Amino acid sequence: KAKEAGRGQVCFYSDEQTRASRERLEIEARLRLALERQELKVVYQPQIDLKTGELVGAEALLRWFDPQQGAISPAHFIPIAEQSGLILRLGHWVLEQVCEQGLRWQQQGYAPLTLAVNLSPYQVRHGKVLAMVQEVLASTGYPAQFLELELTESALMRQEDEAETLLDELKALGVSLALDDFGTGYSSLAYLKTFPIDVLKIDKSFVDDLESNQDDREIAATIVAMGHTLGLKVLAEGVETEEQFEWLRSLGCDYFQGYLKSPAVSAEEFVRFLQPKRDEG
Ligand code: C2E
Ligand code: MG
Ligand code: MG
Ligand code: MG
Questions:
Q1: How far, in Å, from the CA of 14 to the mean position of ligand 1?
Q2: Which residues form the EAL domain (predicted)?
Q3: Is 268 exposed, middle or buried (0-12, 13-18, 19+ CB in 10 A)?
Q4: pLDDT digits (tens, 9 = 90+) for 151-190
Q5: Cα(102)–Cα(107) distance, integer angstroms
Q6: Is the distance from CB of 219 to CB of 247 less than 8 angstroms?
Q7: Left if phi > 0, otherwise alpha if psi is -120 to 50, otherwise beta: which for 58?
């Protein structure tokens, strides 16, 4: 009986696996097409100074609208793009879009702001990310000082020495670096001290229950204190309510992004957040 059940399970598992890998291949094929047909879009979410309310930057986020399936979440298709290596082309495309858009805004007379782009672990480990960033900065002419690259802890944990070298090289280009989803990974003090990071992004999961959860408040307070001790800025992700905003402000957190201000919007819509460039006389 046990044997039967076992066999049944193996069978079920392999069906499930076949189905999953078929779906993966299908999505991958459609994603390739979408890239060619320009069905992908970059949207921008404002990042706000918690004390002054001023716009300090924007995070660029990828959107895919498939004519048949509708909107497909990056949380779903980015991992597939990673498994297939397509992320390298996708990542290049996103960075190029963002740099071109940033430059356009500057040329239109808006005050320059930092645009943040996500790098996936595969891009980071693949080893060509430095050349890729360098190439896009050169070809677009976008000033590196207004580009921020977001990395996750998991992208950096393997081969720490190599990661440190890579981050130093990226920094040497003039870009800034943010650690995304902070608190969900290893959050090791040792690497925080050695890596040339500029911004810690407190993961949304610690922000969600700030009003009610004492532990989360203490975690957030610790991240802020730790970041400030190391001379970093701290940004809270996924802020949705006034209460969360007030807690973060009282904890001394520097910046936030979240639906409380705005979800990510198209470049055209984002213009409403932009300020005219101040006259330097
Ligand atoms: P992430 O980099 O941590 O981005 C933050 C996510 O939180 C975004 O989801 C954003 O839309 C969402 N968010 C922001 N504020 C709020 C809020 O107040 N409430 C809620 N419920 N959500 C909020 P999104 O755009 O679906 O992206 C999911 C993840 O996909 C990103 O997490 C990032 O890891 C990845 N991703 C998105 N675009 C790119 C990209 O261009 N390249 C790479 N490599 N990854 C990307
Ligand atoms: Mg991010
Ligand atoms: Mg995040
Ligand atoms: Mg530093």
A1: 32
A2: 24-278
A3: exposed
A4: 998 888 877 788 899 999 999 999 999 999 998 887 777 8
A5: 9
A6: no
A7: beta
